[in-house]
Amino acid sequence: MSADKETQLREELINFGRQAYDLGLCNEYEGNISARLGPDRVLMTPSQLPYPQRTVADVGLLDLNGNVISGTRRTSSEGKMHLAIYKARPDVNAVVHVHPLYLSVLAVMGEPLKMVLDEMTPFLGGDVEVSEFAGSGTQELADNVVKALGPRNGAMIANHGSVSVARSLPFAFTITRAMEKFAHIYYLAYAVGRVRTVPEARQKQLMQYFEMLKTRTT
Ligand SMILES: [Zn+2]
Fold it and tell me: CB 3.0-4.6 Å disulfide test: which of 37, 101, 164, 206 passes with 176?
């Protein structure tokens, strides 16, 4: 992979991390973002460094087993989860893990985010599941999240937060923002006690757009 590609991904990781923080999707220490640089190479944000202070030099380069190839800072505490997703999903080139308010509420409720808007299925590929509980930073959490994610683009981590995946980091970030908006709408309808999902036949029809969007890189 070219040095230019690596530089671009490092910049994207810092920029989208900063946006996640600015948009209130996580506080200055929460969450982590990664991007696949090659079949066995992953760039990952550092832990214990506030988003506003991060530079491209703070991004670590790992192999899929978590061995550090370059970088001096400790990489994210949920690194195991990112690597498990890349191993299970060769189609995924970017992973965004944050703690958005409404997705976290559903993650606390153990309530899957159902397809209640016509625009949801193309982004997500079906109901967003909540993983089984496991402690932060554990391999068990990583395995549970891979299971909850399945072939879809998003999952919630029980009593914790959300994860979104895509072919590119810009699109993974777009999915994160969309998913939080969907969770907000779903929660309000749920709280009122009237939730009508998109008819199943329509959801099935929309899956073709999900397959098309899977190739999206921006
Ligand atoms: Zn987290």
Answer: 164
Q: Is 150 helix (H, G, I), strand (E, B) or coil?
A: coil
Question: Per residue in 124-173, pLDDT tens?
Answer: 999 999 999 999 999 999 999 999 999 999 999 999 999 999 999 999 99
Distance CA 72, CA 118 (A): 45
Q: Using 50, 70 and 90 to split pLDDT, how confident is the model at 2?
A: low
Q: How far is the CA of 140 from the centre of ligand 1 (A)?
A: 14
Distance 115 CA to ligand 1 centre (A): 24
> 122: Cβ–Cβ under 8 A, 6 or more apart, which residues?
206, 209, 210, 212, 213
Taken in order 183, 187, 190, 195, is the CA torsion positive or negative?
negative
For residue 3, the model assigns a pLDDT of: 74
Give the relative orientation of helices 3-22 and 169-192 as an angle to the nearest 10 degrees. Answer: 20
What residues sit around ligand 1, an ion, with C-beta below 5 angstroms?
161
- What is the structure's pLDDT at 91? 95
Cα(31) to ligand 1 centroid in Å equals: 5
- Ramachandran angles phi, psi of 10, nearest 5°: -60, -45
Q: Report d(CA 179, CA 181) in Å as an integer.
A: 5
The DSSP call for residue 130 is B
Dihedrals phi, psi of 81, to nearest 5 degrees: -65, -45
Q: Give the whole-number percent of the chain exceeding pLDDT 70.
A: 99
Structural domains present in the chain? 3-213 (3.40.225.10)
